[in-house]
Specification:
17 helices; about 0% strand
Length: about 475
Amino acid sequence: MLFNSVDFLIFLPIVFFLYWFAAKGNLKLQNILLLVASYFFYACWDWRFLFLLIFSTVLDYSTGIKMFEAKTKGMKKFWFWLSVGVNLGFLGVFKYYNFFVESMSDALHGMGFEAHFWTLQIILPVGISFYTFHGLSYVIDIYKDKIKPERNFIDYSVFVSFFPLLVAGPIERATHLLPQIQTKRQFNYTQAIDGLRQILWGLFKKIVIADNCAEYANMVFSNSGDFSGSTHLLGVIYFTFQIYGDFSGYSDIALGTARLFGVELLRNFAYPFFSRDTAEYWRRWHISLSSWFRDYLYIPLGGSKGGTWMKVRNTFIIFVVSGFWHGAAWTYVIWGFLNALYIMPSIIFNTNRNNLETVAQGRMFPTLKELYHILATFSLTVFAFIIFRATDMHHAFTYMAELFSPSLFTKPQGIQNYLVWLLVIFFAIEWIGREHKYALERFGMNWPKPLRLSFYLAIVFAIFWFKPVNDVQFIYFQF
């Protein structure tokens, strides 16, 4: 079930009504309803993979209790590694098995050997990378004695499978979400209206910005040899806005939907395209994943405590692993490696925490220096996304060669004026709202009510006017 579908438009009000009216004041009944709704939501993709989600939930719930009750350190380790091994095993089989097999076959072929390995003809279970990381953070925190295991199976299951975040995040922590699931919730009108505004902005990002940019970007990347260098540049810029609008749009809808049920999820994006360096960019892009790798990989590897060499090594490890998390292809690995190179100067010279506050905070416009750094960081991001979007490295290098050609200085082909203006409007609203959790949180709140409502209606109109004929799946469902 897609957030941008008619099915979800019907599903959400039904669950909302049952949650606040049929199960009013009964926390246990509300959580059961959320669990049933979440499983139904997931089963709409492919009911067969629902059993994999339930198995993963039962595994982590059980091993968490076993670790806590273990009489010896050895038994505690046994249950911990059983959970980690099975979780990563499932992820490895479904997501990475064919990649490793094909890479091995290619390597042997390059050495003059012919090898034919058996590959799996299966589809990737949607959301497996996200709910696997939910479970892993839970068992790791229990193993490190940071939290105690949850004894209520329903509450734990809701933590893993809460439908707004189930298939594409944010990646939640038990310390943040479980207490909210266990606490009695009362309807808050202000919170609900705020949630609706964030849903509205998320739908605008996804349908009006991402889906329309996708049409042009897909055309250029699929037929790159037919276009000029300037068209290649515009194509990858559009893809950059596509992936941002698509993924941050999903996150906005997820956070807004959770607010309708009295739940606050972790923020996942904080205006990354206004970053002044790569370190700031990665503090603002897919925040829940970046912080997950920081807490569960970078710090256990030694973090920044072992001097410059250890910082450099650990940074490369988390970026390469982060790239590999996105998909079983060398393009993602190299994309991660390239971003590690981008951030290296700030790591080596200890400037990675220079830009912690919002750019031009308290001011309408940035300084020329700030603008330069924003444009430079954005340019590096756009270049890296060529590799991310390409089908393979040969495609990526071909695309780069065609981009950096004399035709780079010609007028792009097939430019759509309406889309340029949509991006200008989108960028302006994001800039004005950059000091808030999402762009519409305070935008227009001082306007007269009729004007503010007209603005919201204009967004609704744009969503329906620019919506593709068929619902377009979110990009991060494939990860």
